[in-house]
Write a structure and sequence with these properties.
Elements: E1 2-6, H1 7-21, E2 25-29, H2 45-49, E3 54-56, H3 61-73, E4 77-81, H4 92-99, H5 102-105, E5 115-120, H6 135-139, E6 145-148, H7 152-164, E7 169-174, E8 181-185, E9 200-203, E10 208-212, H8 216-228, E11 234-238, E12 241-243, H9 247-257, E13 260-267, H10 272-284, E14 293-297, H11 308-311, H12 315-326
Parallel strand pairs: 2-3, 2-4, 4-5, 5-7, 6-7, 10-11, 10-13, 13-14
Antiparallel strand pairs: 1-8, 6-12, 9-11
């Protein structure tokens, strides 16, 4: 039975289902218990599952991840919340030096089924260190899997799939979309769910391919709808997984359309768009009618809140890139 709910509420339901299904699942982070998290994603979970399963930690991100490593080695499935994207950097050493490497270093004998939840991106008028997009740091790191949801239905299933995985997963949540609503199937379980590490065609099209993920999927869909008024039929692909990237879906689309535009909030320099452009050019060169273009945040620190709308990719910038692609 489908219910209409926000993306944040869908995550809450997914976490609840994971706690119900496996007693080894524990949630830990700053203010995740009594408060229910800054964005209330864990609201009510400590009350229902107790302080041993939903744990309020000290304000120490390195300590949160370090503790999760120990718990995972002993058979638990920790779900760590990093309160805001810019707060993950004190834990960066733990994530890239321990979480990402333990399985490889132990020749496969040790698994770390850790999920690290990170609200990311801008658009909420927040202060410094609260609106960053650090996904490329983690997608660049071998040993980590990186995923991001863009709608409530995916949020509900993807968080459960990530927790079930035996691999460490960095789970990026688009905070500006927490309050956007959609239909979620709560009673069907995960048996027929879309695979975690698979891209999805969010809107079929034939004239150009728009690649986006997380908070920018909505912008890409809006751009496709606007372009349709000018007679252009754009295909929108929600990447969903940033490491590993589902390249076959991307290549099939670009070979049909002949054009590709990548959209993401993070700065363009060495971002996900650069890697996608390189791979598409290598694999689809003879199908391309124009260079792969990128619409990204600017190569500056994230600006003050009153300037963020000038920084974030928007409908006009995406449509401008589409026009440039067709101008070749």
């Amino acid at each position: 039975m489908a219910e209409t709910m926000s993306l944040g509420k869908a995550l809450n339901h997914g976490l609840r289902r994971a706690l119900e299904n496996d007693s080894k699942v524990v949630i830990m982070g700053e203010d995740v218990g009594k408060l229910g998290g800054v964005f209330r994603i864990t609201d009510g979970l400590q009350k229902d599952f107790g302080e041993d399963r939903v744990i309020d930690t000290p304000l120490a991100e390195a300590g949160i991840i370090g503790t999760a490593v120990g718990l995972a080695i002993r058979g638990y499935r920790p779900v760590c919340e990093i309160q805001f994207d810019g707060f993950v950097f004190p834990a960066y050493n733990q994530i890239v030096a321990q979480v990402a490497k333990m399985h490889y270093r132990s020749k496969g004998k040790v698994r770390l089924p850790i999920v690290i939840r990170i609200p990311y991106g801008g658009g909420i008028g927040a202060v410094e260190h609260h609106s960053e997009s650090p996904e490329a740091y983690f997608a660049h790191t071998p040993g980590l899997k990186v995923v991001t949801c863009a709608n409530p239905a995916d949020a509900y299933t993807m968080i459960q799939q990530a927790i079930l995985s035996d691999d460490p997963i960095v789970f990026f949540e688009p905070k500006r979309r927490y309050w956007e609503k959609g239909e979620v199937e709560l009673g069907t379980g995960l048996s027929g769910a879309f695979p975690l590490h698979a891209a999805r065609v969010a809107r079929p099209g034939a004239d150009a391919t728009l690649l986006a993920y997380g908070p920018m999927v909505r912008v890409a869909l809006d751009a496709a709808a606007a372009a349709a008024e000018d007679g252009r039929n754009l295909e929108v692909i929600d990447l969903r997984t940033l490491s590993p990237v589902d390249y076959p879906v991307i290549f099939e689309s670009v070979r049909r359309t002949g054009r590709a535009v990548v959209v993401h909030e993070a700065p363009g320099n060495l971002g996900m768009g650069a890697e996608l452009a390189a791979r598409i050019t290598e694999e689809c060169f003879y199908s391309l009618e124009a260079p792969v273009l990128r619409v990204t945040g600017y190569d500056t620190p994230y600006p003050a809140a009153r300037l963020e709308e000038e920084y974030l990719p928007d409908l006009d910038r995406v449509l401008d890139a589409i026009d440039r692609s067709f101008g070749w």
